[in-house]
Amino acid sequence: MKLKRYNEAVSWIPYLLPALLLYIIFMAWPLLDSLRLSFYTGSAGAGRTFAGLENYKKLFTVPQYSERYWGAFGHTVIFFLIHMTVQNCLGIFFANLLTNKTLKGTQFYQTVIFIPVTLAVLVTGYLWKLILNPVWSGPFLENINLNFLVRPWLGNPATALVCVSLVSCWQWIGIPTMMFAAALKNISEDYFEAATIEGANSWHIFWKIKLPLIKPVAGIIAILTFVNNFNAFDIVFAMQNVNGAPNYSTDLIGTLFYRAGIAGQHPVGIPDPGMGSAIAAITFFILCIGVIPTLKSTQARN
Asked: Are 99 and 186 in contact (CB under 8 A)?
């Protein structure tokens, strides 16, 4: 009997092996090799030299590197906070509206909200770059008496990062909206009926019933936002180039990593995979520090 139970318990392992093998080859091993590479200097062609913690030391103590890193880190935090407050808050707002049974045309609104997600980031970035360019959009805005919008939004260091962040929010807002909507639809109507009988209004129902019950989904969305934003690269590349123009005001950790480890642009003269790996390793540990507590606090069972 025990042998039969043991065989049943391990019968699923062969089905897991292909996925596990792919994960090790394409995820786990590159991650470990990247951590190893952060302790070396030089390129593969010229020969690598073991440098210990030298790359990390240079990144935090040498002004040429530390100034760019802390600037990119601060911009990434702002980029993330804008997504958390704008994208996810609007996502749960739209989801609450879409799950309202009195709303007509729900399928149409869902499609409209989700369409930007289907667009390529390069296409989105290029289109919004034209829209925000006063040379292209200026005459149209002036004709409809919106002259105050005719500004070089992407050319001003004070507004460039906010504009890029809001464009990214516009494109990806469909994902948290659909996830929140799916979670809200899974809540039993009995809760709402009981609350209504007790005299609760829609605001109380949202804060006291809906929000607590979708907490696990909100935690997953927060984690996805955190991970994706701290790895963001493509939207800045599409709208502002890899230097984070103007004057590095849109420089993120992702663009700094690309310049240091792959392209060899400022702050390094040639590609330095070791420095790039050091930046990636620090980002990995930052993600772990943020993801693990969030996962534990939002997925814990009461």
From this structure: no
Q: Which SS3 state, helix, strand or coil, does residue 44 take?
A: coil
Q: Is the pLDDT of residue 124 over 70?
A: yes
Report the distance separating Cα 153 and Cα 68, nearest Å: 23
Q: What is the C-alpha separation between 11 and 7, in angstroms, rounded?
A: 6
Q: Hey, what amino acid is at 34? A: S
Identify the architecture of domain 54-299 in CATH.
Answer: Orthogonal Bundle (1.10)
pTM of the model: 0.90
Question: Facing residues of 49 across strands?
Answer: 41
Q: Which residue has the tokens 């606090």?
A: 297
Distance CA 176, CA 82 (A): 14
**Averaged pLDDT, 162-179:** 96
Q: Where are the domains of the chain?
A: 54-299
In the three-class reduction of DSSP (H, G, I as helix; E, B as strand; rest coil), residue 301 is classed as coil
Cα–Cα distance for residue pair 117/214, rounded to 1 Å: 23
Tens digit of each residue's pLDDT (9 = 90 or more) over 6-62:
566 667 778 888 888 998 998 889 889 889 999 988 776 567 788 889 999 999 999
Residue whose C-alpha is closest to residue 237's, from 120, 69, 132: 120
Distance CA 227, CA 84 (A): 12
Rounded Cα gap, residues 92 and 1, in angstroms: 51
A 10 A CB-CB count for 147 gives 11
Residue 3's pLDDT band (cuts 50, 70, 90):
low
